[in-house]
Amino acid sequence: MKLVTSLTSPYGRKVRIVLAEKRVDCPLTIVSLPEDAEAVSEFNPLGKVPVLIMDDGKPLYDSSVIIDYLDHASPFSRLTPTDHRQMIRARRWEALADGVTDATVLVVAEKRRPAKQQSAEWIARQQSKINRGLAQLSADLTDRRWCLGDAYSVADIAVGCMLGYLDLRMPELDWATAYPNLAELVVRLNERPAFAETVYREAQPVAA
Ligand SMILES: N[C@@H](CCC(=O)N[C@@H](CS)C(=O)NCC(=O)O)C(=O)O
């Protein structure tokens, strides 16, 4: 098994955290996008990371599917509730956190286009998804320790990866001041080795 990902992908980080939490040893194949898009497309027709290459060579994507697979493959440290209602709650948290990440990725990509081609309207539309998503996540969290209450789960992993990505790509947003309960959640998450070991890192430039 090996994981194809970049070191700045928030979806890839979700999977890396799950591997660490579940103590699954899995080598990484580090790629940079868009430079390695063609190579990634050989594994995933959508050209997106993360992709888990299984022992039989078959590729698995996307991050939620990979996490489901890993969580069932090893019973150690379950991250998705077995109770169906709780599982749906966790999935809803993950869907909202990933949706905020999706909107952030779109804003970042748009702002990398030549200034004349950028659409302020498109950016504003994505930004409002981010703003509404954060407000909802904060309202849903209230003063709980973890997203689901007492149990740490894939919901916390998705929310933590999304908030870390906002810090990396949109530091001016200062979500932590607006939503102190989300900031406290991140403090708790960063105490976990799985989070500390997977902080976002830009790819090292190749020495000339
Ligand atoms: N829903 C997918 C999203 C994956 C995704 O969008 N990955 C980004 C990297 S952060 C990517 O590979 N983008 C390249 C592209 O869209 O061409 C997942 O959860 O794995």
Low-confidence stretches: none
Radius of gyration: 17 Å
Q: Main beta sheet: strand number and arrangement?
A: 4 strands, mixed
Q: Kindly provide the name of the CATH class of the largest domain.
A: Mainly Alpha
Total count of domains? 2
What would the average pLDDT be, to the nearest integer? 96
Number of strands: 4
**What fraction strand?**
5-15%
- What is the element string, with H for helices and E for strands? EHEHEEHHHHHHH
Structural class assignment: mainly alpha
CATH architecture of the largest domain: Up-down Bundle
Proportion of residues in helical segments: 55-70%
- Could you tell me the CATH topology label of the largest domain: Glutathione S-transferase Yfyf (Class Pi), Chain A, domain 2
* Cofactors and ligands: glutathione
* CA-CA gap between termini: 32 Å
Count of individual helical segments: 9
What spatial order of strands do you see in the largest sheet?
A: 2-1-3-4
Q: Which descriptor suits the 3D outline? A: globular
